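pasting input
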Amino acid sequence: MRLPRRHIPTLAGAALFAAMFIAASFRYDHFLTSATLLNLLGDNSFLGIVAVGMTFVILAGGIDLSVGAVVGLSTVVVATLITAHHWPVPAAFAAAIALGALIGAISGSLIHFAGLRPFIATLAAMFLARGLAYLISLKSLPIESDLHTSLAAFAIKLGHVGRLPLTAILLLIAVLGGSYIAVLTPFGRYAYALGGGEEAALLMGVPVGRTKIGLYTLSGALAGLGGVVLTLYSPSGDPSAGVGMELDAIAAVVVGGTLLTGGVGSFPGTLVGVLTIGLIVTIVKNNENLGAGTTRLAIAALLLIFVALQRVLVRLTSGGSHASNAQGRVPDA
Amino acid sequence: MRDTQRSGWGRLRAAPVFWPLVALVALVLLNLAITPNFGRVEIRAGRAFGSFIDILQNGSIVMLLAVGMTLVIAVAGIDLSVGSVMALAATAAALLMTEHHQSLPAVIAGALAAATAVGAFNGLLITRLGLQPIVATLVTLVAARGAAQTLSDDQKVRFESPAFESIFNGLVLAVPTPILLALGLALAVGVVLRTTTLGTDIEAIGTSPRAARLCGLRVHALRILVYAFSGLCAGLAGLVAAADIKEADVGACGLYLELDAILAVVIGGTSLTGGRPRILGSIIGALLMQTLTVMLQMHNVPTEQTLIIKAAVAIAVCMLQSPTLRQRLFRPA
């Protein structure tokens, strides 16, 4: 069975992740256990959900810089609605997700109707979302609700293997949902088509405007969900939450094998990317004698080695021309 | 509509610098009207004071960053690491002064060499390893600040050096030197771009790297040069920032300034997908953002809310520049 070329970066990523995991288990005791893997899933669940949304947008050749700010806004909205206005928890969650979707829709509309570049439009949306978050609350707000606390503690027991917390369940649902949409719905196919080339997609009859706005709305909604999940992880609304998260999400998506130029990528790949970033951070943080600066250096070095190795593996297995698209343009951001 | 058919006014309106300049002039006029003491310039103790001076001086750091960023964006790249490189240069200079007691030329040379080296490293990652600019400069963003923190043991480094401060925070004819550095650099780069083939080479690479290579341009070498130069500009900015507070604040120096620089360049008319570098536009863009910030400060708008206003203004200017929107709004005869 020939390996489909488009899956090679993801498989390379998965292989490297496995190698790193096994190498770490020699270094640290009790590392090669299911508990470690489950912890990785749970700790990075909110980043993973945000990264799933980012994958949609990047697949279509765009980018969404506002997701971190939307996460912060979403946590503040949830906290304010539950604590100060005594909304029921599900309603507060829904409101946060809807607000995230609205911000995404604004980004998408700016990009489609006003012709702004995705980088600029979503950068402005980031300022907007962060500003709104600070407008609602300048400080961190605690969330006080019994339902919320029990949701945060909810987990499915997996026999002897361990516990799968609600946050991890939501992450897996997001990844599976993303895969379903990407592979089995026209909307997903349109997203890939846009990434392959917008003019070509337009000529093929792809509803470019609807798809674009829909993708950014979806990214915003998932960022909102990410914020909700973040409140499950640490029950407070913090307007400065999520700062820099968009860059982490982009890194996760790229490490997972999705090309920033669009048209190539997968959602399981993003899951691999998120777990990899989480693993890198875990390994580095586990080493207590590293100072703050050296920790950063170590994370950057590991990330660089990972991405470089991935490119080497891709070149070795597919002959090198994987990186340029039909226009002969070497992909740049 | 061809250029020859447009009237003089029409051609002026179509220049990419037009709308940012209009916005800047409008903002200045607005401030002169509604902000008390805005237009006052006084000279006390041989130093000029006033809002215009504040804008120019506080904006000089972003202007320095924007000059380098203009060239990077013109080759269809991006440099997210400039803020961290600022911190690295500041820390290197401070340590060279305090712990190694080097002479002033050695301090400046060492700091700028470190900054340029990081920039060249970015260029190598992008050209030799084929990493996407966002990913490569994301890695250096983390690594450079990590290196700075490691060098300084995560401490702020204070220094006292009248010679250093006179260069990077001093006065020439009552005008603060950072302003002269920024405007001088912009002028020098603008002249070089116009009088040598460098300007058209950069534009060619940004428009179509493949065609540029087939024309005989040394695309890889020029790209590395551009990123190295961006590092150098960030180094200069870092030295100015350090001289201002007489210390190298490793954690906060240059934090998130890359976004301001990118916004300045985009507002100034250089296309994110690559093309002609517009240095004058970037300067105007940086001044526009700074005027806005000073205006909001003078009206006592809390910092959190300035984010939303900045976003709105940035969107407005970009929308005015966008040909898509202009076609919809001002249907040409």
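fyi Chain B touches chain A through 59 residues (CB under 8 Å).
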